[in-house]
Specification:
With 722 residues, the chain is α+β, with helices and mostly antiparallel strands. The strands form five sheets. Strands 2, 3, 4, 5, 8, 15 and 16 form a seven-stranded mixed sheet that branches. The radius of gyration is 39 Å and the shape is elongated. Helix 14 runs antiparallel to helix 24, helix 16 packs parallel to helix 18 and helix 17 packs parallel to helix 22. It starts with 10 loop residues before the first helix and ends with a helix.
């Protein structure tokens, strides 16, 4: 059979099936694309274009501080700075790479790098080796819930050897930089270096910004003190950019919209007026894409530096006072029996307003390394240390006696030693005979104050007999003293003010000691508040260091308008008759202006008038070297309070010299200081009045000259018209 059957091929059929399948798939794909584009297109487009808005705060310079005469005391010093801003989602490896590049351009201090930082750095650089630090058994415990992932990390840290965590100098710098990178908030500039940034470093970083993602150059600031260490302890400290928020106040500041690396006032005026000095932070809303890149920035609030403080301090008077104290300390320290003398304090204030004109304190400090002594600022001691003040407080004792009916103005007592059963006689430094209240203040009679205290206690003095008093007499006297500010906080606008110490014994002899200022302790600031209350006629004024708050202005050479004027505050009015207070004022004037007064030789022949009260207190040394002695060491505290002019007071003062000398007699450093600071005060006042008169005279000449020119011009014009 030549007609063989032809074989049937299946290729076309298979191709058709294949083409059909391809057609179906393409149709499905087209259909799906259509659904995506038409139905979900807007949703996907929004997802692709999705952005996130993040608001960040940028810090601003703090407000400045000026003295009462508008002399600049505290300013902001500009600093070149290198910063890093981490975008959202930045991985540690990316930050590490940037840190390595930056380390080649700058030198970075590594003092703050910890052992923990080194171990974290090792794990970051050796992830595989770090994994091997954990056993399979330990991983299984995590799966079973017996351990947490954080526990594994702790185990890794514990198992890193000392050898493994050793780093080269360059690696330490990289780690120090990386540490700064990692500590900042996303999209918030973090200071990497702002101290000792050289011009070369600044230029190199500037030239390489394109290869340093997140790194930038900027201008930072640091606090600058015009008068160096003068009053620096009172002005306070500001935390550095490395310190940021104090750990003890972290939650407080975070709740008030601060960032962790913000600088804040750490102590005293800087801390007390933080809300005012901090300023209004600039708020910027950053718009980021899905990758965390900033695609747009919008300024919500421009921000402004902190408001300025005008202090009540007179820096010319402050500097003069400090020089006087330092000179007197050096001179008196060379005298005999002064081994414990190491400090002295002066407070000068306006008794009518409570404004502190001078808050000076000096103290000998010994360098533990070299053993050399130097005199350092100790102005804070005026509110943080307290001492027995001696007879300076006798004005309060006399007024308390009037109030309690224990004595009357003009009451006489015979001043001779008082003898009590079983105790040593107690008396004045000499017997004054029959004296009244005014003479008692003038010559500083102890016996008069003892008899007053005995009457306050409702007791009766019987020579050689026992003295029985009620313990409530202590409360009576202390409550009265508190009206003047003695033994209680003065209310000054500074933190950490102490109130002093009250003796715990209630024996009769201690009440008599309290009456002459030799039992309870008071601060120099309390002493100044006390004498101010007498000077102004009975108002206990709140002492304050800030006089005005001013708004900031763009021109650094100008002062802004007054935002707030700090008004005088009367804490309380002495619950005593005006004639009583005037009586004590007369007694104080006799102390300084009448022959026989305990301070007459210092003030009696001055061109100005002073009223005051001297004080000497038997005390025990309680200074920094007290542990060198097995038993308490006897010493003398000497003080002086006063005000001037006597009839119309404009300045009140308190001078305190603790542990002045050993023995019953010694130098008169408190009076020497008192005389010199009053001379300095009135000398400055005279010089300023002279300068002001000269300026006024010049202004008048200029104005008169202008008037003459106007008249001449008018005459010429009249002649031309004619």
């Amino acid at each position: 059979m030549n007609n063989k059957k032809k074989k049937k091929t299946h290729v076309p059929f298979r191709l058709n099936i294949l083409f059909f399948l391809v057609f179906v798939l393409f149709s499905a794909l087209i259909l799906r694309l259509g659904v995506v584009q038409i139905v979900y297109g807007d949703d996907y487009r929004r997802e692709i274009e999705r952005t996130e808005e993040v608001t960040v705060n940028n810090s601003v310079p703090r407000g400045k501080m000026y003295d009462r005469n508008l002399k600049l005391m505290v300013d902001n010093q500009p600093l070149d700075a290198i910063t890093y801003t981490r975008k959202q989602g930045t991985k540690p490896a990316e930050m590490l790479e940037t840190a390595e590049k930056l380390a080649k351009l700058i030198e970075k201090d590594t003092k703050k790098v910890t052992e923990r930082d080194k171990k974290d750095f090792w794990i970051l650089n050796n992830p595989k080796l770090a994994e091997k630090k954990i056993t399979d058994k330990e991983r299984k415990k995590v799966e079973e819930g017996e351990l947490e992932e954080s526990d594994l990390y702790k185990l890794q840290l514990e198992r890193i050897t000392e050898e493994e965590s050793k780093l080269s100098k360059k690696d330490m710098e990289i780690l120090a930089i990386y540490r700064e990178f990692a500590s900042g908030y996303a999209l918030t500039p973090q200071i990497v270096k702002n101290k000792k940034v050289t011009k070369e470093e600044f230029a190199k970083v500037s030239e390489n910004l394109d290869s340093l993602p997140g790194v930038d150059i900027s201008t930072d600031w640091d606090r600058f003190y015009t008068y160096n260490k003068t009053l620096k302890s009172v002005l306070g400290k500001v935390s550095s950019s490395e310190e940021g928020l104090p750990s003890e106040s972290l939650n407080y500041y975070l709740a008030r919209d601060y960032s962790r690396n913000d600088r804040v006032g750490k102590s005293y005026i800087e801390a007390q007026y933080e809300d005012i000095l901090q300023g209004q932070k600039a708020k910027v809303r950053n718009v980021t894409d899905k990758s965390g890149n900033v695609v747009d920035s919008k300024v919500i609030t421009e921000g402004s530096r902190g408001k300025d403080l005008i202090l009540t301090i007179d820096m010319d008077l402050q500097l003069a006072t400090e020089e006087i104290i330092e000179k007197q300390l050096i001179a008196k320290k060379k005298m005999g029996n002064t081994k414990f003398l190491d400090r002295a304090f002066v407070v000068m204030m306006d008794p009518n307003t409570g404004e502190i004109l001078t808050m000076a304190g000096k103290k000998y400090e010994k360098d533990p390394k070299t053993g050399k002594s130097s005199i350092e600022d100790f102005a804070l001691g005026n509110i943080t240390t307290s001492y027995t003040m001696g007879s300076s407080v006798k004005g309060a004792t006399v007024l308390t006696g009037y109030k309690q009916g224990a004595i009357q103005p003009g009451t006489y007592f015979y001043d001779t030693k008082l003898k009590f059963k079983g105790t040593k006689p107690k008396g004045s430094y000499t017997n004054f005979g029959n004296i009244n209240d005014l003479t008692a203040l003038k010559v500083s009679s102890n016996v008069y104050m003892f008899r007053t205290a005995i009457n306050i206690a409702g007791a009766k003095y019987v020579p050689n007999g026992p003295l029985n008093i009620s313990s409530s007499a202590f409360s009576t006297m202390r409550n009265s003293f508190a009206q003047f500010g003695l033994g209680v906080r003065t209310g000054i606008d500074l933190p950490n003010e102490m109130s002093g110490f009250k003796g715990s014994e209630t024996s009769p002899g201690k009440l008599l000691d309290l009456a002459i200022g030799q039992y309870d302790t008071y601060t120099p600031m309390q002493l100044a508040q006390y004498v101010s209350a007498i000077a102004n006629g009975g108002n206990r004024m709140k002492p304050h260091l800030v006089k005005e708050i001013r708004d900031p202005v763009d021109n650094n050479e100008e002062l802004g308008p007054v935002a707030e004027d700090i008004s005088p505050t009367v804490i309380n009015r002495l619950d005593m008759k005006e004639e009583w207070i005037e009586r004590v004022q007369s007694g104080f004037e006799k102390v300084t202006m009448e022959p026989g007064g305990t301070a007459y030789t210092y003030f009696g022949k001055k061109p100005y008038t002073v009223a005051g009260k001297t004080g000497t207190a038997q005390a025990f040394y309680d200074g920094p070297n007290r542990t060198d002695y097995s038993e308490p060491q006897d010493t003398m505290n000497i003080t002086l309070v006063g005000y001037a002019p006597a009839k119309n007071p404009e300045v009140a003062f308190a001078v305190v010299v603790p542990w002045a000398y050993q023995g019953h007699t010694g130098h008169n450093m408190s009076k020497d200081i008192g005389e010199e600071i009053m001379d300095a005060y009135f000398k400055l006042k005279k010089e300023r009045a002279k300068k002001e008169n000269a300026e006024t005279s010049t202004d008048l000449k200029v104005e008169n000259g202008k008037d003459v020119q106007k008249d001449q011009a008018a005459v010429r014009k009249s002649q031309e018209n004619e």
